[in-house]
Amino acid sequence: MVLATAAAALAGRDEFTPALGAFAHALQVAETGLPAGSPALRSLAIGGNNLAAALEEHPDRTPVETAGMVAAAEAGLKYWTLAGTWLETERAEYRLAHSQLAAADPRSAVASAHRCIAVCEAHAAPAFELFFGHAVLAQALRAAGDGPAYEACRRRALTLLEQVPADERQWCESERATLTT
Questions:
Q1: What is the rounded distance in angstroms from the CA atom of residue 64 to the CA atom of residue 168?
Q2: Of 79, 135, 70, which is closest to residue 105 (Cα–Cα)?
Q3: Residues 68 and 37 sit within 8 Å (Cβ to Cβ)
Q4: Residues in the chain with pLDDT < 70?
């Protein structure tokens, strides 16, 4: 869907107000119904994920942008569930947890991170995927003020990181850095 793609492109240029407007319009159009297997489903999933990720990195988000970030991540999850595999669904839960953390909603982030891990476990995901789920759960638990659970989850994430193949660990570095005490 062109509007979802345009939203991601606008966000990439830090034009968040028009990006959110384009994505909201894309979601309205999608609500009229999209057939199963429609390429528009993937476009909405990708657009929601990319818009949420861009807004997470935007340091001076307005309250409207913060709400839009979470809505975009929720839409990404919805449409990856319809158009993707378990891997995209798991990663969309991870993105949603990060967006919820950026929105100062650690309780929701804990729930999303638990769902992320559950998807991984249901599909015998490799340590790489499980590491990210446990790392975001640890961050959410810390933000929620649950020190003991944070520490246990942090240790679990670091144990999983040791199982990640050496050539994939570079992709884990920014998450690993969040787990320092």
A1: 36
A2: 70
A3: no
A4: 1, 181
